[in-house]
Amino acid sequence: MILPWHKKPFAKLKQMIDQNHLPHALLITGSEQMGKFELMQQLVKTLLCEEETCDQCVLCRAISKDNPKQALDDSVLIRRSHYPNMVYCRTEVNDKGVESKNIRIDQIRAFCEALNKTADNLQIGVLFYADQMNISAANSLLKTLEEPRENTLIILLAHDPKNLPATILSRCQSVHIPPAYDQETEAWLAQRIGEAQHTDFDVTQLLEHTHGVPFKVLSELSGDGFIHYQHWQNQLLDIAAHPLMINQLEDFEGNEVAVLNCLQNLVIEGIRLKTLNHEGGLIELNKVVKGVDSDFLFKLLSDIYHALGLSKTNVNIKLLLDNILIVWSHITHLKRYPQIINPI
Ligand SMILES: [Zn+2]
To answer: How far is the CA of 12 from the centre of ligand 1 (A)?
Structure first.
């Protein structure tokens, strides 16, 4: 089963297969939890299964069973797939259960060695996440990429290609999984959420909140992240509609960044409602932005971005959030956009 938001990237891969243009090295990118591993599995099944992903045969089942994220009893350099001609390389988990930050050169060597065995069948090596390779590991991989062997496919998974050396990038064909906001993805999510009896959530909003990462919606729903989020959102909308309510605002201490993110999403959605004549969305937000100058929304958004950037420094984030909330609470009747003072 292809996930709805994988259809386009998968079509690109399928075209490479059909035209016999599949490269020796392939790079699959996309933000965390976009399902890079699942797309890779789909590709491998398509390549190997006689019926192109029947999901029933020994081969398809072997590949589905792989879970290289699972901790192993022994620390190992590479992990073997349930399918004998496939190996995985990822950061190692040591005997104490601590995951290392980097993929090291000895791991890459073991990985390439396993792939160098002569075989009649296609040899597949999957490296994740390639952006975790240290420099010597990347250089070691480069040698293998420069001298591709017949019947070998190396698949690199990475969150961000910018973190990979240009030399590696130039040796790979890349396929990107973009964030998903389409109706088909929404329907897929709605079904999953419905099964878990979370019927009171708005799927469009959930996707906005996770920046278009459907699996993240599911993982956050399994915790209480969204319940807080909805609560903050309601409070933020309340103070924009009734500025005096700012005095009754709860203490956001400890959650300043999350509240800023929540406000950021509201302002982005507000801008979209106004400038694109986008319909739908939250009724309260529609009411708030109706009389607001779009220019003020853009300025506020820029201040929020700036504040989020500063939140990584030792700025007084509580005070900064308070200053932004004062502007937001007056947004419907501002005459002039004030300068937000950044506390140090
Ligand atoms: Zn099959």
So the answer is: 21
CB 128 within 8 A of CB 4: no
Report the alpha-carbon distance of residue 28 to residue 34 in Å, rounded. 11
Q: Write 182-188 long-range contacts (CB < 8 A, 24+).
A: 182/4, 182/5, 184/4, 184/5, 184/7, 185/4, 185/5, 185/214, 187/4, 188/3, 188/4, 188/214
CA of 112 from ligand 1 middle (Å) equals: 27
- Report whether 108 contacts 92 (CB < 8 A): no
Here the tokens at position 326 are 């004062």
Question: Could you read off the pLDDT of 282-315 as tens digits, one per residue?
Answer: 788 888 888 899 999 999 999 999 999 898 888 8
Ligand 1 center to 213 CA (angstroms): 28
Count the Cβ atoms, other than its own, within 10 Å of residue 146: 10
Q: Would you give the DSSP letter of residue 93?
A: B
Domains of the chain: 4-176 (3.40.50.300), 224-333 (1.20.272)
The rounded Å distance from CA 61 to ligand 1 centre is 7
Q: How much distance in Å is there from the Cα of 160 to the middle of ligand 1?
A: 31
Task: Name the strand (E) or helix (H) holding 154.
Answer: strand 152-158
**What's the gap in Å between 25 CA and the centre of ligand 1?**
23
Gap from CA of 18 to ligand 1 centroid (Å): 18
pLDDT digits (tens, 9 = 90+) for 157-206: 999 888 899 999 999 999 999 999 999 999 999 888 876 555 567 888 88
User: How far apart, in whole angstroms, are the C-alpha atoms of residue 123 and residue 221?
Assistant: 38
| Ligand 1 centroid to residue 145 C-alpha, Å | 29
Name the maximum alpha-carbon separation found in the chain.
Answer: 74
Positive or negative: CA dihedral 212, 216, 218, 223 = negative
Amino acid at 278: H
Rounded distance from Cα 45 to ligand 1 centre (Å): 7
Q: How far is the CA of 53 from the centre of ligand 1 (A)?
A: 5
